[in-house]
Structure formats: structure tokens, C-alpha cells
Amino acid sequence: MVDLSDTKDKVFQVITSAHDDCRRQIATGKVQRWDVVKWGVAVNAGLATVAATWGHEHNVTAVLFWLAFAVSIGSLLLVLHYNRRITGAREMATILTKRLKSSYAIDYDDIVNINVAIAYSPGDYYDCLEPLIFSAILVVSPFLALLKDIVSAPTITDSEAHAICWFLAALSATVLSAMLGCLSSLAWISTEGDPPNT
Fold first, then answer.
1. Phi and psi angles of residue 159, each rounded to the nearest 5 degrees, phi first
2. Using an 8 Å Cβ cutoff, are 82 and 33 in contact?
3. Angle subtended by helix axes 4-53 and 129-140, to nearest 10
4. What is the rounded CA–CA span in Å between residue 176 and residue 123?
5. Please, is 162 exposed, middle or buried when counting C-beta atoms within 10 Å of its C-beta (0-12, 13-18, 19+)?
6. In this predicted model, what pLDDT tens digit does every residue of 125-173 receive, in sequence order?
7. How do the domains of the chain map onto residue ranges?
8. 139 exposed, middle or buried (CB, 10 Å; 0-12, 13-18, 19+)?
């Protein structure tokens, strides 16, 4: 006959171990996000140095700008990927916290004095200010390659000026949308209300 108390104890150990894994995944994801930003900006700064050195050849500057732009897009996608992994770990931590309370009468929320379900419910917007700042840095970094041309404005062609204007308009709309989502999630977390239906 199976000893149910022994099985329950093993399940408890699995839950606490999985909860520790979630915390490690969150910490690792934050480090990985920062590393992506750091290396993306470093590559774009290197490309900007090459563009400043070879700036008299206009085609080289344009190619380096688009290469830097591709680096930024790849970096942004990686930041988004790591952010989603962090969100998944937080969702799992919420499930495990509920399981501790329902099956073992351990109120994790009371122990740490945080309502984990409410705190983690914004999902990708949980620590939205950090990814927003990282994204802004990555989006601006390709323009370092054009810095020499921007300073000497007569060298900018009409097509480059239009591309820059459209890019800045799209960037402004994206940043404004992200900021509004971030601020709304922070507002209802601070009131500790129910999460919005999404």
C-alpha cells in the first residue's frame, strides 16, 4: 500500500524546488536581457566608429546604418523573448503559490507580505520600465552610424530624411503605446485591485 503522507511530502518538495527554479529563471532572464542590450549597443557603437572613419564614402554609411538597424531589431527580439520567458516563470510561480496554499495550507503571500497573483498579473508589463528603457536604447543606437552625417546636415539625402522622419514617427507611436500600457498596469497594481480582463 502506498504511503500517502510520503507522496504528499515528495509533492511538496517538487513544488518548492519548482518555485526555486522560477526565481532562478527570473533572475537569469533579467541578466540575459541586459547582456543583449549591452552587446547590441556595443556592436552598433563599433559600426558607428567605422561609419565615422569611412564617412566620406556615402554608401558605406548607409550600409552600416542598415546593419546597425538589423542588430537592433535582433536585439529587441531577444529582449522580447527573454521577457516572455520571465513572464512564464512568474506565471508558474503564481500557480505554485496557489498550490502551496490549497494543498499544504502554506500562505506564501502572507509570509513574504506580497500578493503574488496580483503582483505578477500584468504579465509582460510587470517590470515594464526596464524593458522600455532597454528598447529605447536599442532603437536609438543605429542612429550613431549616421551621427557624422546628421552633424553635417547637407550630406543627408531626401530619402534618408524621409526614412528618419518615418522611423522617428513609428518609434514615437510605439514608445507612447508601451508607456501607456506600462503606466496603466502600474496604476492598478498600486491600488491592488483585480487585474484587468485581457
1. -65, -35
2. yes
3. 30
4. 19
5. exposed
6. 778 878 888 888 888 888 888 777 666 655 556 666 666 677 777 767 7
7. 4-190
8. buried
Task: Name the amino acid, one letter, at 27.
Answer: A
Residues in the chain: 198
Q: Which three cell numbers stand for residue 141?
A: 543606437
Rounded Cα distance between 111 and 104, Å, is 14
Is the CB of residue 128 less than 8 Å from the CB of residue 181? yes
Q: What pTM value is reported for the model?
A: 0.74
Taking CB atoms within 8 Å and a gap of at least 24, the contacts of 176-182 are 178/128, 178/132, 178/135, 179/132, 181/125, 181/128, 182/125, 182/128, 182/129, 182/132
Residue 107: CB atoms within 10 Å: 11
**Grid cell of 15 as nine digits:** 513544488
